[in-house]
Amino acid sequence: MRRYGLWAPAGIWPTDPDAVAEAAREIEHLGFGAFWVGGSPADDLALAEAILAATSSLTVGTSIVDIWTSDGDRLAASHARIRQAYPGRFYLGVGSGHAPTAESRGQAYTRPLTRLRDFLTGPLSDVPAKERMIAALGPKTLRTAAELTAGALPYLMPPAHTAEARRILGDGPLLVPEQKVFLGTDPAVARTAGRRALRIYLQLPNYTRQLIRYGQDDSDLAGAGSDRFIDAAVVWGDDDRVRTGIDAHLDAGADHVAVQVLTEEGSPRRLPLAEWRRLAALLDLDQA
């Protein structure tokens, strides 16, 4: 897998199959090594399959399918279908999500790691370990990633977390952190975009507990977040600063970085193709 990939939620992809195929081919042509389908994609894996069908070498992964909203047997069958058609090009990323999601499904968010392990060893037992990954933030979940899967998909974590995750995982498992970027140099615009995208995460203890472990404090995470938090969570600035911020994860031990591009509206409402082109240029993907 190449060093750089893209992360974007499933919900911003077009519904027209031809438009999906055209966008997928451009992502591959730009030189990104992988595309990570975020935003709790459906367990039919239809979007991942469409992206794979339109490309020849691009790796595709889910980041992540939520175990609280997915049928394990259907997910396993979807993986088997994709594995047969596109061997070696797909990672099934799953995760234990968050309490609000579980509760919205009438389920108590208790022992989420146990639930995740049971999902991996039960419905997903026929998915080869080398083809599945998990969302992992804390030490116990990272150790589970090393034990039962190909590796870990941390989200919203700084390079210091990447370094600690690599220590826990050891040398073998894949480590693919997500990193948000904003391609602009105006501090006010960049921070507004960051706040629009990040505010939702400040309501989720899974993230806030870890962010406090890595240098933030309660005041940084209150309301829409402090400038200090936004600047730590979103890499913005000129091309050199953006590349340095992304590469900090590689320097800390990541194998690959899943880059999520923000726009002035925060999380984009449609595929940010122009921004992806700019990102490919500043990362020199034709040389990477």
From TrEMBL:
<keyword id="KW-0560">Oxidoreductase</keyword>
<dbReference type="Pfam" id="PF00296">
    <property type="entry name" value="Bac_luciferase"/>
</dbReference>
<dbReference type="InterPro" id="IPR050564">
    <property type="entry name" value="F420-G6PD/mer"/>
</dbReference>
<dbReference type="InterPro" id="IPR019922">
    <property type="entry name" value="Lucif-like_OxRdatse_MSMEG_4141"/>
</dbReference>
<protein>
    <submittedName>
        <fullName>TIGR03620 family F420-dependent LLM class oxidoreductase</fullName>
    </submittedName>
</protein>
<dbReference type="InterPro" id="IPR036661">
    <property type="entry name" value="Luciferase-like_sf"/>
</dbReference>
<feature type="domain" description="Luciferase-like">
    <location>
        <begin position="16"/>
        <end position="120"/>
    </location>
</feature>
<dbReference type="InterPro" id="IPR011251">
    <property type="entry name" value="Luciferase-like_dom"/>
</dbReference>
